[in-house]
Every structure is written in structure tokens, then in C-alpha cells.
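Q: What structure does this chain adopt?
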Amino acid sequence: RLSEQVGLLRQLWSEPLVTFQGEFDRIDRACINPRPRRMIPIWFGGFTDPAFRRAAKLGDGFIFTASLEKAQEDWTRVEKYLSQAGRSAADFGRELIAREANTPAEAADTMKRWRDFGGTHACFPTMRKGLTTIEAQIDYIAEVRRRLDR
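A:
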């Protein structure tokens, strides 16, 4: 179902009028107006080989929500599926959500290591860090940024 809908979205984004008959979806003369000026990247996430294969076949990137080490291991699996699909890993985005980093120092270190590994995007959540005010969350983000700028 997901694979079919990715193709349908891309068709809607690129064609002025779409009629579509798939296994799961049927669309009769639909359009999006205005259409996007460029193709919208579709990134996938997940933890299993089917998710990695689907992303490699259809996606523009993958979002990992695991430890840095697990994300690196899983990236090698995505890379294998990209190769099997005849696609280059060079143009394929890879983001790490650094959930396991509990301090600004850990978040910055994880993000630097991910970048050095070849990661193209990274983020860190401020939830579940004991931050009870908006100001505390902003200060946390600012400290991560300071550490990344060093």
C-alpha cells in the first residue's frame, strides 16, 4: 500500500491531471493545484529489512531513530539495498535522530560522529530530558549549537 501511494504522490506532484488505478487506490481525474515546483523528497524510517528495501527502492532518504552504532549498522543494510536497486548512495539522505543523547555534549558528539560517518542530517529531541520550561529547552538547543560550532 505504501509503495503504491509513493508512486501516486509523485504522479500527482508532476502531472496536471491524474487518473490512477492501483491495487489499493483508485483516483479519477484528480489534480493538485498549484503543483509543487520540484519533486518533494520522500524519506522513510523503520527498523526492519522491508523498510530498508522500500526506502532504497522508492525513497530519497532514511531517518534512523536508533543509537549511533545501530544507525551505522542499519545504514550498511540500506546501502546494500541501494546497490541492488542500481541506485547511488551518494545522493541518498540519511538522518539520525539522536534520542540516546541526554546532554548537549552527548548530542553534539553524536551528531559530529554521524556527520563523520557520512550522515547528511541529524536532530536531537529535547523531550524527556527533564527540561521543564521553554527557556530550558532553548538553552539546551543553544548549548548543542555552541558545541557543534567549536
